[in-house]
Amino acid sequence: MLKTEIAVEFDMIVNGRTVVHQLALDGDENLEPGDLVALVSDGISLVAVLTEIDDAGYLHLALR
Amino acid sequence: MSFVVTLRDADARLADDQQIVLRLGTDADVDQTIKASLGHFLAYRPVVVASGLDAPGALTLSVYLRNPGRPVVAYRAGPFQRWYRTTTVGHVIDAGVTIWPTDVSVEGEPLPLSSDHADLVVSARSDVLPDAYLAATKSERRRMRDNLRPEFEAVLALFDAPIAFGLPDGAQA
Fold this sequence. Notes:
The complex is a heterodimer.
Chain A: E1 2-7, E2 17-21, E3 36-41, E4 44-53, E5 58-63
Parallel strand pairs in A: 1-3
Antiparallel strand pairs in A: 2-5, 3-4, 4-5
Chain B: E1 3-7, E2 19-23, H1 30-39, H2 45-50, E3 59-65, E4 83-88, H3 89-94, E5 99-106, E6 109-110, E7 117-123, H4 131-135, H5 138-156, E8 163-164
Antiparallel strand pairs in B: 1-5, 2-3, 2-4, 3-7, 4-8, 5-6, 5-7
Helix pairs in contact in B: 1-5
């Protein structure tokens, strides 16, 4: 089940992976590694899995 | 952090008639555009410093400086990108918007066409970001994004109407 949507620029997806800071979130998602999310841009969405939240607050995401 | 943005040295292509390509029709949902820009805000700290500014990051609009020898469809990252919009360096600068030629890499891999990548600086203000935004509730974050919306819309308004990828250059949808 998808836990939330995360706005990204699809340009920034390289080799099926991208990173985005928690600043891109709405603030109440309580995401954890392993959660499935939808990466969205311009009405299009791709399913990704959250692999890590690093110490700087960046979400590491890999396409399913 | 594995999202790295660096400022290229003076880019000779920043002449007035240089065409700028904005992919995705990212004005379709300005709030999503703002969120995506927020997600990259802190990664712009090195560029801010290199530009002689003092801010924790920057809100930008990601664009490409079109190489005249490259068909515009070459800037399409995938079939989900159906539209693009164009403007010129001169039009952007005349509007008082700063252009940063930037190289971007993710997980150590440069973005495709990174050498043509540039950012239009929407805001390098430090009055609300990032600590206040991170500490804000969902409704407060929405209000903060609403406050940023006019600045994004002003930069997006510098572009011509959307054109479908696949149409001859200059043919508007």
